[in-house]
Design goal:
Number of strands: 8
Order of helices and strands: EEEEEEEE
Number of helices: 0
Helix content: under 10%
Radius of gyration: 16 Å
Structural class: mainly beta
Number of domains: 1
Largest sheet: 4 strands, antiparallel
Strand content: over 45%
């Protein structure tokens, strides 16, 4: 499974043999934006496109599978630097925000 962007790509893979799933994250870069997708590969062979986002300035990537296999964790970094650590729940087919990290303001050095 691969996807190639104009300016490159990166990927993440998490496998949980006990839960019989794999989480695949692919991030690609085009001119002026990035396209990020998180897939779930199930033991029955189905590959589901769970999250699919295009960012003008920002990124999204998976960070792991929940211990009980009921979902996965992922991070979104927005263009303003704010970071959301989220959890996707398979049964509810939705996410919840686990943590929000606000960027530190840059110091202003006025004249």
């Amino acid at each position: 499974l691969s996807k190639r962007g104009q300016y490159g790509s990166s990927s993440d893979l998490y496998i949980d043999e006990k839960a019989e799933i794999a989480i695949i994250g692919i991030q690609t870069s085009e001119s002026g934006s990035g396209h990020d997708t998180i897939y779930v590969l199930k033991n029955n062979g189905n590959l589901d496109n769970v999250l699919d986002k295009t960012f003008k300035s920002g990124r999204m990537w998976p960070t792991g599978i929940l211990e009980d296999g009921s979902g996965f964790k992922y991070t979104i970094k927005f263009g303003d630097g704010e970071i959301h650590n989220r959890v996707y729940d398979f049964q509810k087919d939705t996410f919840y925000i686990e943590e929000v990290i606000n960027p530190q303001p840059r110091p202003f050095y006025g004249i």
